[in-house]
């Protein structure tokens, strides 16, 4: 069964202390789709401009990503330009050109409408609901958002949150959304808004899962060389949702494993610029690092 | 078998967004000793002034802490005053009065000299070596230090590091000591200075263990109410070393468990000001939270 994702496809220009990349493939839905494609077929809903090259569409197709929902609109593809300091923890946005994203109105191809696992990537919460209304019987809906929507469209976002099962945001966004400094208190408040499952990403410090019953902590993989953190959060979400779509079990134990899979994909993604690491990543490497996460976190109780 | 600790005993005045405490019992060796005392008898080497009340000495004694090495010197006890913001991650030091610490020269009582597990708390690295020379046959030596000694006495510190098995520092100190931003690279450099086992504390983000073979990550316990982080690092070290002294196994599996025990003690300590939480803490609570750490980190590989 396929996994539906809506989000952005972009060209990024990124500079880190370890190098730079100009006009390379990026965007939240791109990172998400390619990460998830290691586990399951993907149905992509997004928009690109007339300048988007066929070879990148061919690349997506080669990853079993259905691009029938990838609209080609008049104008230029969305562009983002950013820079990271030595800490690599937060990008400084230098330039954003929305271009075709400005008038994007997601329309699902007929064949997508029976997909029951949906990831609403970081777009306008009105559009997220719009996508959801086009899906017949969603079984599992997860959502990502960002500080921009929390501050500019909080009411619409809260309305959307009432419709989702899983929310994936970072710690700053969780604090902003809940008006609570303490993350445990923040999580309780956010869960009360709708999503029974909340995943709070903490960048280089990993992620926390708040479910109905308990809390799970996944560390980030300690890497000796991080080249570019762009797309780490989207790769995490892709690995996480891809694994859930493949295994189709949504209990606590499987969600924990899915979070580790998300962390594995994120850890590979940051090893190179753009999607370069994913382009050569092989499934056995994923299995290997999943086991390394076990070594990283395991202790015996006796 | 006892565990020897040298460090500071102090009176702290602490303000956090959740309250304040004036002239309360504090100091690195105090937090360390009381945390470790849940596992093993302690032999304390430190100095207090004429103003140090008998009731606090009685408290330490009640915790099976041998105070024969606690020197009472002419003058006042060391005092520290600090304040925390809402993030609770770093104290702003408002005042430090070294008092009797200024002329402290650790002298071990004869009966301490055969103790074989030693924790050199955060004092002048010259004095740390001085203590070590008074111990006949140390089997396991761990050390704590701080930014002040790394910048002002780096050569002496490196000399001391050559004599220890385990170094426990925070991430900022690890970066400062190694001149490396990346923690994995920093760890390799520091391990090459002597300590085969390195524990890097990351406050609310937990701790990383770098051993010869692999890396272990322990999260901090997600608490709904943190009142005062003062002494968290020392309580961590105390729980860690206390458990090692009790179990007397220094292999990777036991060091991992010891790190979780350290995290348990740190998590309780921050629930109240000064050592208040420890004064009423019972051993079954420690066992209970140790299990909670398992729930927090466990995932099945299949």
Task: Describe the 3D structure.
The structure is a homodimer. The first copy, chain A, is of the alpha/beta class. The first copy, chain A, has a single domain (about 5-295), classed as 3-Layer(aba) Sandwich (UDP-N-acetylmuramoyl-L-alanine:D-glutamate ligase), CATH 3.40.1190.20. The first copy, chain A, has 11 helices and 14 strands. In chain A, helix 1 packs parallel to helix 8 (about 230-245) and helix 6 packs across helix 7 (about 185-190). The longest helix of chain A has 18 residues, at about 250-270. The first copy, chain A, is globular. The N and C termini of chain A lie far apart (about 40 Å). The model of chain A has no long low-confidence stretch (mean pLDDT about 95). The interface of A and B includes residues 185 and 218 of A.
Summarize the structure.
2 copies of one chain form a homodimer. Chain A is built from 11 helices and 14 strands. With 302 residues, chain A is an alpha/beta fold.
Helices and strands in order, then pairings?
2 copies of one chain form a homodimer.
Chain A: E1 3-6, E2 10-16, E3 19-26, H1 28-36, E4 42-48, H2 54-62, E5 65-66, E6 70-72, E7 78-83, E8 92-97, E9 117-120, H3 125-133, E10 140-144, H4 147-152, H5 154-161, E11 166-170, H6 171-178, H7 183-191, E12 197-201, E13 207-210, E14 215-218, H8 232-247, H9 252-269, H10 276-280, H11 283-297
Parallel strand pairs in A: 1-4, 1-9, 2-7, 4-5, 4-6, 9-10, 10-11, 11-12
Antiparallel strand pairs in A: 2-3, 7-8, 12-13, 13-14
Helix pairs in contact in A: 1-8, 3-5, 6-7, 8-9, 9-11
């Amino acid at each position: 069964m396929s996994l539906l994702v809506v989000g952005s496809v972009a060209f990024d220009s990124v500079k880190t202390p370890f190098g730079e990349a100009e006009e390379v493939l990026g965007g939240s839905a791109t990172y998400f789709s390619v990460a998830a494609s290691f586990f399951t077929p993907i149905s992509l809903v997004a928009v690109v401009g007339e300048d988007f090259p066929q070879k990148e569409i061919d690349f997506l197709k080669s990853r079993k990503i259905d691009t029938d929902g990838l609209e080609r609109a008049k104008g230029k593809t969305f562009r983002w330009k950013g820079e990271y300091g030595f800490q690599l923890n937060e990008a400084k946005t230098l330039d954003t050109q929305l271009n075709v994203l400005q008038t994007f109105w997601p329309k699902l191809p007929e064949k997508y409408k029976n997909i029951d696992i949906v990831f609403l990537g970081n777009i306008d919460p009105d559009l997220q609901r719009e996508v959801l209304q086009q899906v017949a019987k969603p079984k599992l809906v997860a959502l990502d958002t960002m500080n921009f929507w929390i501050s500019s469209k909080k009411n619409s976002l809260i309305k959307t949150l009432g419709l989702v099962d899983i929310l994936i945001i970072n710690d700053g966004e969780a604090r902003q959304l809940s008006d609570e400094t303490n993350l445990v208190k923040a999580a309780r408040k956010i869960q009360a808004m709708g999503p029974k499952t909340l995943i709070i990403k903490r960048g280089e410090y990993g992620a926390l899962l708040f479910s109905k019953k308990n809390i799970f902590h996944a560390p980030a993989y300690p890497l000796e060389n991080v080249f570019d953190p762009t797309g780490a959060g989207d790769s995490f979400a892709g690995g996480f949702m891809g694994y859930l779509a493949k295994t189709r079990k949504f209990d606590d134990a499987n969600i924990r494993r899915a979070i580790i899979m998300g962390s594995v994909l994120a850890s590979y993604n940051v090893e190179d610029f753009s999607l370069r690491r994913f382009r050569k990543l092989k499934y056995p490497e994923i299995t290997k690092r999943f086991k390394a996460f076990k070594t990283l976190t395991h202790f015996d109780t006796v």
